[in-house]
Design brief:
The structure holds three protein chains of three kinds.
Chain A (H helix, E strand, L loop, with lengths): L10 H6 L3 E5 L3 H4 L1 H12 L3 E5 L12 E3 L6 H14 L5 H7 E2 L1 H8 L4 H8 L3 H13 L3 E5 L1 H4 L4 H15 L8 E4 L6 H6 L6 E2 L3 E2 L3 H11 L11 H10 L4 E5 L3 H4 L3 H10 L2 E6 L4 H4 L3 E4 L9 E4 L4 E5 L12 H11 L9 H11 L8 H7 L2 E2 L26 E2 L18 E6 L25 E3 L1 H6 L7 E5 L4 E8 L7 E5 L28 E8 L1
Parallel strand pairs in A: 1-2, 1-5, 2-3, 4-15, 5-6, 9-10, 10-11, 16-20, 17-19
Antiparallel strand pairs in A: 7-8, 12-13, 13-14, 16-21, 18-19, 18-21
Helix pairs in contact in A: 4-7, 4-8, 4-10, 7-8
Chain B lengths: L9 E6 L2 E6 L4 H7 L23 E4 L6 E2 L10 E3 L3 H17 L6 H9 L25 E3 L9 H6 L10 E3 L6 E3 L16 H5 L5 E3 H8 L8 E7 L8 E7 L2 E6 L13 H5 L8
Parallel strand pairs in B: 1-5
Antiparallel strand pairs in B: 1-2, 3-4, 3-5, 6-9, 7-8, 10-11, 11-12
Helix pairs in contact in B: 2-3
Chain C lengths: L12 H11 L10 E2 L9 H12 L4 H11 L3 H8 L13 E6 L2 H5 L9 E3 L11 E5 L5 E5 L16 H4 L7 H6 L4 H9 L1 H10 L12 H9 L7 E6 L8 H8 L1 H15 L3 E6 L4 H13 L8 E6 L9 H8 L23 E5 H13 L1 H5 L9 E8 L5 E6 L4 H8 L4 E6 L5 E3 L10 H6 L8 E6 L4 H15 L5 H18 L7 H15 L3 H5 L2 H9 L5
Helix pairs in contact in C: 1-2, 1-3, 2-3, 3-4, 8-12, 8-15, 9-10, 11-12, 11-13, 12-13, 12-15, 19-20, 20-21
Classes of the chains: A alpha/beta, B alpha+beta, C alpha/beta.
């Protein structure tokens, strides 16, 4: 929508210049702790912090204003904020007319979202919505940051559009100090996408449907490149279900633990004709595989690059040898290719990277030497003289904007897993500081913070209502499965909202419960909104 | 990385008879370093707010009644500074003697080097000289606190405080010679607010704070910095992009730091970056 | 603050009530849908802890935790603050505690610490030595200064600052104060306007009376000239220098004058609010000053005054440590520059003045700056209060114009054979009988290598022993050092150790050389005046009196 998918601003801008930081669906204090250092520097220098999250997380405890939104009502909130900005005269009309398109349709789409309507649907008091809107409208340098709280929904892409709309409304993008920061959850999800590990993209975020781009790659690789987009992960599971996908090669992913509606996922993986897993550990997924290829830790046992949330490409370097028979991931792939009759050439990471540079304009100037010299470079970096770009979309501030940024009118779509009398409690999931995703990595070091274990967190009111005891156990069921879990009362949770981590699947197998309702465009599932019921056990 | 440069005024001062021009806002220490004049520092950290408590960096400033701490005193146009006068050398030597006679400096190579350079004799106060003595605190798996080595430089408190982590798990408690770094009511680290980011370890200049791994290796004599290689890479966990310096000895990661001049971290990490590397160990 | 991990132990009902009385009833502003971080109120930490201790006798984990929670202060920091102040106890102890002064003047009068009693540094009751301070915790807590009866002033003539006190004007009556000419100074100030007031004070050549002797007019001018509009005036009434009690007498016996003078200071500097920071051990002064503040609200034209009470830390008499204390932190002095007139209390421009200095401001406005400057000497204008104690017949507060000699002062107070006189307190210097004709001015004392300090004059006669006094001084500084900087934190320990060895006749190497070098690093490299002066008295005793010769 903007041309390239990456955070528009640098952490430095947050730290030094932003006067309003909004964390929307982000608990950066625990999930992106060092990014939060930059936020705190800003807060200490007088910037305001506002946090939108169903829970009053540790990030929200730092906020000048926390908005405790109902799960999955981000679009109503964003639209109410947008409408309030417009009717209060805080919209940047000059920017809108010069640099954007589609404003009228957008304006019409937010009209029903008065502050009162916003309160009714989101649960956030109208006064708070108004306060957020006015702060955002008045800020000289607003930074709007989000992560999985926005994207782990069935309408993830629409959620993101709703936030981008806000930035466009106030001219808060494309200039030093103001911008949009999608905080990436993993160390190279940005890089992975940039390298084309997305079903409709070639390396360098070039579109598969772009004939010229495709031709360039066909030429370089000496093979045809299909213009038909592939399948993202959810699409693959659907294809497995239909029987059209029979063999899968999994590298460094653990869908048997991390997929929503896990039992379905495991069932489908078991049905495959052939499953190959390349990983560091014998994960749950690897246990199902026909062949396991032990790979190496990309950040310590091999050479290469990774790309961070602020588009910074940095070098990872080999510090130790992989253990036993584990081999470098590039070597594994190249060996497979060789046995399939193709010599892909040098396995040296730098050589492969130089090929990327030749084919991906936004990485062109990022030689290993320059990456070393500059300590990392933010794309785009068009040539050997280019220093990289601290912020992007500067074109929106030119006198004549050739490609205006479009407003995308989006409609509210509540979470798919509906609440009813049978499943009355809304479960949302999230992360903790000392753990990471399914605990494959962090479960393997001893930490005093792990001692808390795992528990279903409910409000004391819900604990009483459902006959639970603080420290006791409960049977937690969703429409897809049931698990037993310890219970902890949490007075910061409001009645109706329950919370689980996903870090200790052997203790509490959260993804048995979650729903695999995905956004067809992004492929992310609605991990954040599950309908459950709880009954005491023992 | 690209950063914006803002125009700043330059001012001129004299240090040890040499004229030097620095940006307004620089400290006397900056001016000394620019001239290549070696100035000892202990509590000063490049990434931290100067607290100027060790007083080893003091210099003589013409017109000032007392010596001034160069690490925090802002340079002003026309200042005349002497770093090598008798007053300065005596003060520095005494600071080192006072510290050396009261604190275990065995893992503080910088301090030991200064003691030699300034010909300090910490023994001069006799065998009965009061010492800072605390039992080593080993109350968790990740790091060790040996406050017999603490020179009260305040760096750990700052790193845990508003300078970076903002967790405030530790502060200075007590007063005078009894002042010491402590959690509330001296509770163990697992009972405190500590989130094990290790940023305090990273800034401790004397080894009072050390990772448990380093501590254990030193205890059994296997720690050997001369055999360690440092490889810079990027953390395996979230998407912030923190640089890690992996310290490798015998093909094993023994410590993790982050470069002080890396804009993303300024030397700070979280528990996962600092200690989470262990998941790749097979022994 | 933020995502704090708070202590689990709850406060008792009594502790909760005591803390709520200081902080106001808790208002639950945060709910399940919106909330805000509280960034502001940590500065009430010390009053909250003091209130809890006055209620049950000590600061329990529950009280510490509750204060932390209410004020959003990290518990580790609250613990760090609580353990800094000598009068706060984190260990359970009886509700009734007596502190016995073992300091210089009281030691000369045979002070002894009985069972269950605690030794204390100087309590500022030197003219009634030996002295004690008693705290009684409970539902109606109170503190007592022992002996409690105040004595009439020993000097009747030539008084200016002490005029109303000598005349016995009722210190609890606003009417009596006004009838005695009170608030005429403020009226005059308002007629003159701020700039003219500052001009008068500058013209008068008034120097601060707390010990630093900085020109008051210059200080006020500097605050007035700041761009920052939020400003403060602070009265430093921490008076903990051993041998000093002048501010205590002024506050107990003429409190309305202090209020008037502070209001004038606020008017002149443009400060909207003033604080009076009184040491904990002056309960009568607390009551009298608070009463004066309460009675004068309508007279101050919106200028706010707040009383803050210390908790047993001599170092909080250092102005930046005083700020830290008011701000709810450990009393650790800040580095200067920047100076308080630019960056002071809460980071705002602040004029800090001693009690006696402020009384002199009233005098300046009464007689005019030029006339004021004509009393005293060229380098030291006006009259000075002297605190006489020790081996004197008539201990107490005296007022003489600068320029009077030490002999004249001692004659007024009545002395026998003088072995030594400690001028300026523990941070001051000893002079021998050879210097009795020393003129008591800043310039003359400086030239003689000694100091007037806060006006302390402690007399040692032929029978008094000096070595115990030196040991006590060394012990005092070692105890009161805040601990921030190496020269003072460790230097004061080494100084005391060396003196003990010398006194016991068991020197280690050349102790005098050690003492001299430790003195040098403390003087040259300490952060604040405490460390910088910690060796003065001892060095002067060794040099001037040849103790340990």
């Amino acid at each position: 929508m903007f041309g390239a998918g990456g955070g528009t601003s640098s952490y430095q801008e947050v730290r030094e210049v932003a006067d309003l930081i909004v964390l929307w669906g982000s608990n950066a204090r625990e999930a992106h702790p060092i990014f939060f250092h930059h936020v705190l520097k800003a807060v200490h220098r007088g910037a305001k912090l506002m946090v939108v999250d169903p829970r009053r997380t540790t990030s929200a405890q730092w906020a000048d204003l926390w908005l405790g939104i109902d799960v999955g009502t981000d679009i109503p909130l964003a639209n109410a904020v947008a409408r309030e900005i417009v009717v209060s005269g805080l919209a940047n009309e000059e920017f809108i007319s010069r640099a954007t398109s589609g404003f009228d349709a957008f304006r019409e789409s937010v009209e029903p979202w008065t502050l009162e309507e916003g309160e009714r649907v989101t649960g956030v008091p109208a006064a708070a919505i108004r306060e957020l809107a006015h702060a955002f409208g008045r800020a000289a340098n607003p930074q709007l940051c989000w992560t999985l709280g926005i994207t782990e929904h069935h309408n993830a892409v629409d959620n993101v559009f709703a936030l981008i709309n806000l930035a466009l409304l106030v001219g808060g993008v494309g200039r030093y100090g103001a911008g949009l920061q999608p905080l990436r959850g993993q160390n190279n999800v940005q890089g992975g996408g940039d390298m084309g590990a997305i079903p409709n993209k070639l390396p360098g975020f070039q579109d598969l449907s772009d004939d010229l781009a495709r031709a360039k790659f066909e030429d370089a690789w000496g093979a045809p490149v299909s213009p038909i987009p592939g399948l993202h992960l959810t699409g693959m599971f659907e294809a497995m279900e239909h029987g059209t996908l029979k063999a899968v090669y999994v590298v460094g992913e653990n869908p048997a633990q991390s997929e929503a509606d896990k039992q379905r996922a495991i069932g489908l993986l078991k049905k495959l004709d052939h499953l190959v897993v390349q990983d560091l550990f014998l994960t749950r997924t690897a246990e199902l595989a026909d062949v396991v290829l032990p790979g190496c830790a990309g950040w310590a046992e091999s050479e290469g690059t990774v790309t961070s949330s602020e588009r910074r490409v940095q070098r990872v370097r080999k510090a130790i040898d992989p253990p036993g028979e584990a081999r470098d991931d590039i070597e594994i792939v190249y060996e497979l290719a060789r046995r399939l009759g193709h010599d892909l050439g040098s396995t040296k990471a730098e050589d492969i990277w130089n090929e990327v540079r030749r084919l991906s304009p936004m990485h062109a100037g990022m030689s290993y030497a320059r990456l070393e010299e500059l300590g990392g470079i933010q794309w785009p970096c068009w040539d050997d003289e280019h220093p990289g770009e601290q912020f992007i979309h500067g074109r929106l501030w030119h006198d004549v904007v050739i490609e205006p940024a479009p407003f995308m009118a989006v409609e509210h779509s509540p979470p798919v897993d509906l609440l009813d009398d049978d499943f009355p409690l809304r479960l949302t999931t999230g992360r903790r500081l000392e753990s990471f995703n399914t605990g494959v990595q962090t479960g393997r070091f001893s930490s005093p913070l792990h001692v808390d274990g795992e528990a279903l967190r409910v409000s004391p009111e819900d604990g009483a209502r459902y006959g639970l005891t603080d420290g006791g156990r409960a049977l937690v069921a969703s429409r897809r499965g049931a698990i037993e879990a310890p219970v902890a009362f949490d007075s910061t949770l409001r009645p109706g909202l329950a919370f689980l981590n996903l870090h200790f699947p052997e203790l509490v197998d959260t993804n048995i419960l979650t729903i695999d309702a995905t956004d067809p465009r992004s492929g992310t599932a609605e991990f954040k909104a599950t309908a459950i019921k709880v009954t005491p056990v023992g | 990385m690209t950063t914006l440069l803002t125009a700043k005024k330059m001012i001129e001062l004299t240090v040890d008879g040499q004229a030097v021009r620095v940006f307004e806002g620089s400290t006397i220490l900056d001016a000394c370093r620019q001239l290549g004049i070696e100035t000892p520092t202990l509590c000063y950290g490049d990434t931290l707010t100067p607290v100027n408590v060790c007083r080893v960096c003091v210099v003589e400033l013409e017109g000032a009644r007392t010596l001034v701490p160069s690490c925090s005193r802002k340079a002003e146009a026309g200042m005349v500074v002497h770093t090598d006068s008798e007053r300065v050398r005596t003060s520095r030597r005494l600071v080192l003697e006072l510290l050396g006679s009261s604190v275990d400096l065995s893992t503080a190579p910088e301090a030991l080097a200064y003691i030699e350079e300034y010909d300090a004799k910490p023994d001069r106060f006799g065998p009965d000289a009061a010492r800072v003595e605390h039992e080593v605190k080993i109350d968790n798996d990740l790091y060790v606190r040996d406050y017999s080595k603490c020179i009260l430089c305040y760096r750990c408190v700052e790193a845990c405080g508003v300078d970076y982590q903002n967790t405030f798990a530790i502060a200075v408690a007590g007063r005078g010679f009894d002042a010491h770094i402590s959690t509330e009511l001296d509770v163990t680290l697992p009972d405190s607010a500590c989130v094990y980011c290790g940023n305090c370890i990273a800034v401790c200049p004397t080894g009072a704070l050390m990772s448990k791994r380093e501590y254990d290796m030193r205890q059994d004599g296997t720690w050997d910095e001369s055999q360690q290689e440092v490889v810079t890479t990027v953390c395996a966990f979230c998407g912030v992009g923190c640089n890690l310096e992996l310290h490798v000895q015998d093909d094993r990661i023994v410590n993790v730091t982050s470069p002080d001049d890396h804009d993303v971290t300024r030397g700070n990490l979280c528990i996962k970056g600092r200690f989470g590397y262990r998941f790749i160990e097979t022994t | 603050m933020a995502d704090l991990k708070l202590l689990d132990a709850p406060p008792s009902d009594a502790e909760r009530a005591a803390i709520d009385a200081v902080l106001g009833a808790p208002v639950e502003a945060n709910g399940h849908r919106t909330a805000r971080a509280d960034r502001a109120s940590r500065h009430l930490l010390l009053p909250a802890l003091r209130a809890a201790q006055r209620r049950i006798g000590w600061v329990s984990e529950g009280a510490l935790g509750y204060a932390s929670r209410r004020l959003s202060v990290p518990p580790a920091e609250a613990y760090g603050v609580a353990t800094f102040y000598a009068l706060l106890s984190l260990k359970e102890r009886p509700a009734d505690v007596t502190h016995v002064c073992t300091d210089l003047s009281c030691a000369l009068k045979g002070a002894t610490v009985g069972p269950g009693e605690h030794p204390s540094p100087c309590l500022g009751l030197c003219e009634r030595a030996p002295a004690k301070y008693r705290t009684v915790a409970g539902e109606a807590p109170y503190e007592e200064q022992i002996p409690a009866e105040s004595r009439p002033l020993p000097q009747r003539d030539g008084l200016r600052l002490l005029r109303r006190i000598a005349d016995g004007v009722d210190p609890t009556s606003l009417d009596a104060y006004v009838a005695a000419g009170g608030f005429e100074g403020l009226a005059r100030a308002r007629e003159l306007g701020p700039d003219a007031v500052i001009a008068e004070v500058t013209e008068s050549k008034l120097l601060g009376r707390g010990g630093a002797a900085f020109p008051t007019g210059v200080k006020w001018r500097a605050v007035r000239d700041q761009v920052e509009q939020t400003r403060f005036v602070v009265c430093n009434a921490d008076e903990s220098e051993p041998g000093t009690f002048k501010d205590r007498v002024l506050m107990e016996s003429d409190p309305f004058a202090l209020v008037e003078a502070l209001t004038i200071a606020g008017f002149a500097t443009g400060a909207q609010k003033g604080y009076v920071y009184i040491r904990a051990e002056y309960p009568l002064a607390h009551a009298r000053v608070q009463h004066a503040i309460d009675e004068t609200e309508s007279l101050r034209d919106g200028f706010e005054l707040e009383l803050r009470i210390g908790a047993g830390a001599y170092v909080c008499g250092e102005e930046t440590a005083l700020f830290q204390s008011i701000e709810g932190k450990r009393g650790e002095p800040r580095n200067k520059p920047p100076f308080p007139v630019e960056v002071g209390l809460f980071g705002k421009p602040t004029a800090v003045n001693n009690v006696e200095t402020l009384f002199n401001v009233l005098e300046v406005l009464r007689i005019g700056g030029t006339t004021y400057s004509e009393t005293g000497t060229e380098g030291s204008a006006g009259t000075r209060l002297f605190c006489l104690s020790g081996c004197v017949e008539r201990p107490g507060l005296y007022e003489l114009p600068f320029g009077a000699t030490l002999r004249e002062l001692l004659d007024l107070a009545g002395v026998g054979t003088v072995k030594a006189v400690l001028l300026g307190g523990a941070a001051g210097a000893f002079v021998g009988p050879d210097l009795l004709d020393l003129k008591l001015t800043h310039e003359d004392t400086r030239a003689a290598g000694v100091t007037l300090g806060s006006g302390v004059v402690i007399v040692y006669d032929d029978e008094a022993e000096l070595v115990p006094a030196l040991l006590r001084i060394a012990e005092f500084f070692r105890d009161e050092s805040c601990g921030q900087c190496v020269p003072c934190r460790v230097g004061t320990v080494r100084q005391e150790e060396a003196l003990k060895r010398l006194a016991a006749g068991r020197p280690h190497d050349d102790e005098l050389h050690t003492l001299s070098e430790v003195a040098q690093v403390m003087r040259d490299a300490s952060i604040c005046g405490l460390g910088q002066t910690a060796a003065n008295a001892i060095e002067s005793a060794i040099a001037n009196l040849k103790v340990f010769a």
